[in-house]
Amino acid sequence: RDAISSAQEIEITTSEEVYTLARSGDTWTLREKAGFPARQESVAELLNALQVLAPVARSTAIPERHASIGVTDPDQGGFGAAIRIGAQEDVYIFGRKDAAQYGRLRGADQAWRLNEVLPPLYNPLRWISLGDDTLPRPQDDVTAISIRGGGRTAAILRDDENWITDQGEAVSDATIDAAIFTSRMLELEDVRREGLTRAFYSIYFDYANDRMQAIELLQDNDAVWARFRFEGFGEEMQLYAGREFRIDELSALDLAPEL
Length: 259
Description:
Elements: H1 2-5, E1 9-13, E2 18-24, E3 27-30, E4 36-37, H2 40-52, E5 55-58, E6 81-85, E7 92-97, E8 100-105, E9 112-114, E10 142-149, E11 152-159, E12 162-165, E13 170-171, H3 173-185, E14 190-193, E15 201-207, E16 211-220, E17 223-231, E18 243-247, H4 249-255
Antiparallel strand pairs: 1-2, 1-6, 2-3, 3-4, 5-9, 6-7, 7-8, 8-9, 10-11, 10-15, 11-12, 12-13, 14-18, 15-16, 16-17, 17-18
């Protein structure tokens, strides 16, 4: 229990991936997701469950039956979730059947039914929030828009009631409204560290008081990722820095209007 309360990291291995909850001072972060801050209450729930976890009944000691209670080793193609706490050598493999939690020590055949049910372990994104509670979206009125990509560069300005490019071309309100709405309501699906991939499209939103938001779109295989740049905003935007966020394809289309 002392090892759990003082742990500096918790490594979780599933059949899909390996991820690490890492402590930085009083804050837990998700290392493989660009060190993004974890939901502290979710990590506390896991730590509390691990501290009181104990066997209450023997389960199977036959390896061929481990799969039936979910405790096959993910390092060997199994579907259990393995947890390593800090620098401890012991790794425990956990699985669920119905409403019961099971576990065994890696390398041991004996499995046990446990007294506590652990939080879900299979999706690393459950440990973080990419919503506007941590990543606020500017909601201010847009005064001008600039685009770069799709074979052209253009500035789009408000002329009384109309949007006009710097070449005098009218742009429909529906096109501009879709881009602005998407910028405000953008749902971020994943996060990674900023890489060297060049943007295929960039859109810049100007706001009052010399503030600006730039959204750069990147193509990576079948996924679209976005980088964000802010000028004139406060520390509330700092979590965007040095990171890229996956967005859905429809949002990317709305952010890249055809003029």
